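Hey team,

Filing this mostly as a record. A colleague (T.K.) asked me to run one chain through the structure pipeline before their review meeting, and I want the input and output archived in the tracker in case anyone asks later how it was produced. No errors, nothing strange. Just documentation.

Input sequence:
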Amino acid sequence: MRIIRAAKVLTGRPGEVIADGEVLVDGARIVSVGPRGSAGEAEEVLDLPGHTVLPGLVDAHVHLGFDDQVDPVTRRSRESDHHLLLRMAENARKLVSAGVTTARDLGGRGFLDVALRDAIEEGLAVGPHLVAATRPITITGGHCWYMGGEADDEPAIRRVARENLRAGADCLKVMASGGLMTPSAPPSWTPQYTTDQLRVVVQEAATRGKHVAAHAHAHASIRSCVEAGVTTIEHCTFFTPTGHRYDPRLADFVAASGTYVCPTVHGVHERIAKVHGQAMVEAWLAGVAAMREAGMRVIAGTDAGFAVGGIANRTDGYVGGLETFASVGYGNAEIIELATVLAADACGVGEVAGSLDPGKRADLIAVAGDPLERISDLRNLALVLVSGRSVGQAGVDTVTSSVG
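Output structure:
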């Protein structure tokens, strides 16, 4: 048994703050949460005055295996699976070094995300709990086709979905629209699948009790995703041939459905503005702010792993994304909620993670300061527990590739 005490304990439930609180941990599980002294005695007591304890952070959209050696024209790679898996393990270590204790990997090749997920659970690698989507389902030559999930009609969609689930996928990822990073693919404002085809993906996931994350930039694709019943819409940028064009009526439709939206907010927008222009970035940020006003169920996810114009969105940059939310009007308590309990629920792990409750996994962090006052205090990590194991990696670094 271990007691962790702090000046504040944020349980993850909206508005619940325990001053001078403590969490009792037994192995991989939380036993109790309450004020100082409520847990009784324990073999070990960690007292952290001036600190805040809160649930481990959740990154609902990462790509640990985005390959920095993919040719920009052919999208083929010289990097072997063995080498890529090692780099994925290092990216997972960087994620957990930022306080992320659960991450949803939304697309990789060769089922390497499943191998890494299992290695972390066995204690053979250091990283967060992973929710693995394996190969994204996409049309032939579509966005991220090179990851191996090409499917053009209903039978092919079912086949790829079932192969992914057979390989151990925790969820399914589908490219409902084109994207920005695959030259051969339809542009981002163009749908890749119809509503009925997206329903097939949802049906196949449901047969195994799994959820669907849908990449959607185009207006029509966003609407189709809601109509098809996906669990989360990724990006949701309202993209058109002339850039971001937020549609209030479509936003209201998404909000009314209760579908989770992961706008993949990261902390490198200022550097991206230098490549793609300030106007594009400002339109994107205005859309993220408008999602809040519309009442969308927004969750935190950084799209960590991508590189645009030589700009890397590193896997240890998670808090930068939360600071971006704050810069467009989200409150700190609201940000912590969308980064913990809401994101965990959207990723299908809300019963075991996302809040500090008895019986849940002992996934928690302690930071110096008070993130309710300063969201940047989430950078001041003093403790990271993943299923009760201390995995703090602060101060450890390796040679950094251009991605991750």
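Quick notes for T.K.: The chain has two domains: 2-55+356-391, 57-347. The CA atoms of residues 40 and 261 lie 41 Å apart.
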